[in-house]
Amino acid sequence: MKITDARVVVSSPGRNYVTLVIETEDGVTGVGDATLNGRELSVASYLRDHLCPLLIGRDARRIEDTWQYLYKGAYWRRGPVTMTAIAAVDVALWDIKGKAAGMPVYQLLGGAARDGVMVYGHASGSSLDDLSQDFQRHLDLGYKAIRVQAAVPGLDKTYGIAGAGGRVYEPANANRPQEDSWETSLYLDFAPEMLRHIRDEFGYGTHVLHDVHHRLSPIEAGRLGAALEPYRPFWMEDPTPAEDQSAFRLIRQHTTTPVAVGEVFNSVWDCQQLITERLIDYIRTSVSHTGGITHLRRVFSLADLYGVRSGSHGAGDLSPVAMAAALHVDLSIPNFGIQEYMGHTGPFEEVFRTGYTFSDGYMHPGEAPGLGVEFDEEAASRHPYDPRYLPVNRRLDGTVHDW
Ligand code: GCO
Ligand code: MG
Which residues form the Mandelate racemase/muconate lactonizing enzyme C-terminal domain (predicted)? Predict the structure, then answer.
């Protein structure tokens, strides 16, 4: 089953997505997501200029061999650009294998290990009252798990707050990054207050999550985790920048609040110490930034040995192709924890026709052969690339802080 064409489509149906399309001699086509938010064209070029020419003539059935060929053959290993490009090829080949077999990808991965995939949605607000309204909206939609973020009093621009009060979840500017504001002391006072507010109003029947977005030092994270314990968060996400894996030992000494890390990682090596020393509870690597289904399964298999569960990144900057691929993996692995589902906005449905479903807090990838996502290239061409920068973050005294 020879590959006859591999092409990259960069489009912006609501936000920017890089999609790889692979065609085979017998007419089976597969798609992969190659979106690296804010740095999209670097992956598009890696694919177009370096990987697509190598794919022509290869046997589409040899997924592992192709993965090794692209990874080891590059010499320059790991890194978000390389691993996102390899992920797109890998996911497209799994899509092709599923279509050729007439089976959804999860069946090829061993079949369903559960009936559905518990997902968490994002509730946010410019005030605690706004947050409550959004939390209620998610409950009404059926969510069993909800992430909460609210504007920190005293900081005029904070990440992760959608809609109300004119705030934007993830400001993305065309010419240069927007500058958010930050002050750890204000946040550390406010975050436990926010969790208390939600538990007082809604009780303990729903899983509540919170994303710290890499902004604390280890000892600050220990303090936050301890302060959150009475409100029993499902997890505290990305408490510190996790390049420094050993820093999590200090967090662990101070709190039993579960810790989730990994959305900026791109290989099993980035989380090896976190997993083998049991320094985290959930590993959040994504299918499209971590070398695709082939490598993500390797990460989750290592995690399984150490009692760490999955909690894949599923923000709206990963395309519906990535969402579908994640759901196939989630359904099939033994150590699934939870899946993020932020959903997609704008005219994305013109371009990506998805077969996955959401019902009562659980998702399912569907029964269509392959990934179950159809990509309409013609529709994509009506939504051209729209360059955007992600924000940067500064403390009130002007110091650049982790974003
Ligand atoms: C999350 C995230 C994201 C990231 C985004 C960056 O969903 O947990 O932290 O929303 O900020 O993916 O591009
Ligand atoms: Mg996050």
Answer: 128-258
One domain for residues 97 and 44: yes
Cβ 286 vs Cβ 314: under 8 Å: yes
Protein residue with least CA distance to atom 13, ligand 1: 37
pLDDT of res. 161: 83
Residues 88 and 208 in one domain: no
Contact 83, 295 (CB under 8 A): yes
> Residue 272 sits in a domain of what CATH number?
3.20.20.120
Cα 180 to chain centroid distance, Å, stands at 22
CB 68 within 8 A of CB 13: no
Residue 300 lies in a domain: yes
pLDDT, one tens digit per residue, over 167-226 is 566 667 788 998 999 999 999 999 999 999 999 999 999 999 999 999 999 999 999 999
Pocket of ligand 1 (CB under 6 A): 37, 170, 211, 213, 263, 313, 315, 317, 340, 390
For residue 17, give its domain range: 3-104
Shortest-distance Cα residue to atom 7 of ligand 1:
315
Strand partners, 395: 182
Which listed residue (17, 120, 159, 231) is catalytic?
159
Q: How far is the CA of 260 from the centre of ligand 2 (A)?
A: 9
- Residue closest via CA to ligand 1's atom 12 equals 315
Give the count of domains, the chain: 2
Mutational pocket test of ligand 1: of 210, 234, 317, 389, the residue with most ligand atoms within 8 Å of the beta carbon: 317
Ligand nearest to the CA of 160: 1
Q: Which residues of the chain have pLDDT under 50?
A: none
CA distances in angstroms from 396 to 156, 191, 253, 390, listed in the order given: 10, 18, 30, 19
- 300-328 residue pLDDT tens: 999 999 999 999 999 999 999 999 999 99
- Whole-model pTM? 0.97
Q: How far is the CA of 97 from the centre of ligand 1 (A)?
A: 30
Question: What is the rounded CA–CA span in Å between residue 310 and residue 16?
Answer: 26
